[in-house]
Amino acid sequence: MTVLKTSLRSFFAHKWRMVLSAMAVVLSVAFVCGTLVFTATMNTTFDKLFAESASNVMIAPAEDEDSGSSFEGTGPANGVPDSVPGSVVDEVAAVDGVEQATGVVLSSNVTAIDADNENLNPTEGAPTMVANWSEIELRTMELAEGQEPVGLGEVMIDADTADKNDLAIGDEIRLVTVFGDYTASITGIAEFMVTNPGAAIVYTDLPTAQEMLLGGADDFTEIYVDSTGDVTDEALKQSVAQVLGADTYKLQTADEYIEENRDEFGEVLSILEYVLLGFAGIALLVGIFLIVNTFSMLVAQRTREIGLMRAIGSSRRQVNRSVLIEALLLGVFGSVVGFGLGVGLAVGLMGLMGSLGMNLSTEDLTVSWSVPVIGIVLGVIVTLLAAYIPARRAGKISPMAALRDAGTPGDIRAGRVRAALGGLLTVAGLGALAATTSVDKASDGAGFLAIGVLLSLLGLVLVGPALVGLVVRALSAVLLRGFGSVGRLAERNALRNPRRTGATASALMIGLALVAGLSVVGSSMVASATDEIDSSLGADYIVQTSNFTQLQPAVVEAVQDTEGLASVTPSLPVETEITLPDGGTEEIGLSASPASYVDEVQMDIAEGDFAAAFEQDGIAIDGDWAEEQGVGVGDQLPVAFDASGETATLEVRAIVTPGSAFVGSWYIGTETMETYIPAEARPLPWMLFASAEDGGEEQARVALDAAMEAYPQVDVSDQAEFKEMIQDQVGQLLNMVYGLLALAIIVAILGVVNTLALAVVERTREIGLMRAIGLSRRQLRRMIRLESVVIALFGALLGLGLGMAWGAAGQQLLALEGMPVLEIPWGTIIGVFIGSAVVGLLAALVPAFRAGRMNVLNAIATE
């Protein structure tokens, strides 16, 4: 009980010194809890959507394994969704136990365009869905305004799409599908009674949906079967299967339908959850350094107090327990606050999803009992682990320490054993990173990369204090010597406790190492892609959709009819199953193109004749695959085409050099594709290569832009624009990652602030003496700011150097996947280094201000 009282008294006496450590716990726990609440709410919301929309039995085409959700149905490569004959509705309606069978037509291979020629997609990459309005939709939607659509010239849209695009009843929109370009007037607006799944929804009547999406076929993409309630769903499913045939169609009960959709949605959501939790883990790791420093400094400042406790009979265990109890209080307080903040963060993320078109209601906010338990347990455990070493150090303080001045640091030199171990781990880690250059496959090198990152990070954290003297002196010689005596004082302060400086810098090092590593990888990807474009792309223009979906026939026809183009070469995706030499099979995606592809894209061919591969029954294959399977030019490959089910024997006529392919590394000619895939099942191109007539590039571009003006979903790029697009896409991804890493860097900055603030308290008497002998307030503040800058730059040097090593190793694995160029983004590296100095200045503002306000006499009298 005495230990508990002492711990409580000490905790509340030093509560303001622990605020920043508590903030580290709060932020990290909030990120974890917010992620768990947000993903749980998403699951709850979509479970409700699936449950509301499902019927007792669901019927879908057997060949379409992805037709579970009513918001899916993109269909096969030809852009036409798989369907069930309309006669099935009548057959099923006659089955005992069936109250009603309703056919639905749905597809997302549609572009909706308003009168201003703007794409109605809620966000780039989000789908536009077209479906027939039926009783099924009334389960999740309600008619809010106007009337239901009737006929080919009328449509109804969802309220969110109408609000975002300022659409009203009477406005006209265009719908571009595989079967044509349709203009229709809006007759009604429907509101979601559950969540908006993030899509733009356009409704038509049934005949119009069948005309637009199925080419007029009297078919359905799904059939909803409702029971009379006299039989179970499983029994009704068996009855339907007896009528239709067990394997003819995909039959599911409502529970199976909901479970399948939950699993599919959960797979996507779990990736997001793991990514967010990963960044939260990085923030927690950085926070450990902050907490270690806090308790180490508090123990050092309380050396006399702890020595007195030992002198009056407190045991080592009691002192140790006292520090751990303080850490427990800090962890519980920070975790509880973090949980509350995490719920608020989840609500904020829901609002962000709403701005992106996916409306999530706070009524579905799901906070299970496990969320606060996980958050609090995680926060407490991390805090206790971080405080364990300082607690042990406190327990070792002897009663004689009561005779020393408070605040005298204990071991101010980095331990030789620790430094040696850190150096060994660092060298081992760098060796593992270097080993990535010796592997033949990226998958084989992934283990080396992971081990190298872990060992080098751990090693540099351990060896960091031993590097303080060397690196800080070098930085000081460049940056601080010009500030005279103030600069020398700042240097000595940074060198005073290498272990503390190393821990503070290590927190910043982790975040900046990840930033640098990802920057190198991203820049190398862009450089490799642009180099590949320069060396292989012969076409003047590339035509593709902004979200990389397939191009509709109207778009292809418009490009082919453009004046001034000498050639237009489509690249069509063809899914196949190839029989291996050992009798096994492998799913392979081919690119089908006409012979003009050889002129548009220059490939590096290891063996054979690339042009011959585009002739009848020819094929070009990947070099790595050929070597692995022992296949060479002239060999015969049995190839089964998924779209038709037909099998052909194709002759290998070219082997593509590994890593040299611009679009895939397996090719056949369109003549071969057309021989084995009937017209109605042939895929749509996902990219067009176009070349202008000699000397007419400028005129051809103007004509091509004019031809694509009616299709805002399509991008036309020349080679320079195509390279810029790739750079922008990688840049957007990196910016998102940097934004998530900002949490860890913020925690690291808090660590710098905390270290300086506690150092000011620790050096109160020293500061008073310096002020007494003539150091001005301005000089004092400058000294603290310079000390902070040196610590920040020390962490930046370690982090950026380590990150570049990680990035270079990662690029070696990318080189095995066709990205051979190593590009160091020196602009980003230098910018981050300078930014670290700015961070150091900002982190020192409050500690420097507080130090400058100290009363000189009171500071000198401080015990």
From TrEMBL:
The chain crosses the membrane at residues 274-300, 323-349, 369-391, 419-436, 448-480, 501-521, 736-761, 786-806, 826-849. InterPro entries: ABC3_permease_C (IPR003838), MacB_PCD (IPR025857), Macrolide_Exporter_MacB (IPR050250). The keyword Transmembrane applies. Residues 63-83 are annotated as: Disordered. This is FtsX-like permease family protein. Signal peptide: none annotated. Residues 19-242, 501-677 form the MacB-like periplasmic core domain. The keyword Protein biosynthesis does not apply. It is found in: Cell membrane. Residues 279-399, 740-855 form the ABC3 transporter permease C-terminal domain. It is a multi-pass membrane protein. Keywords: Cell membrane, Membrane, Transmembrane, Transmembrane helix. Belongs to the ABC-4 integral membrane protein family.
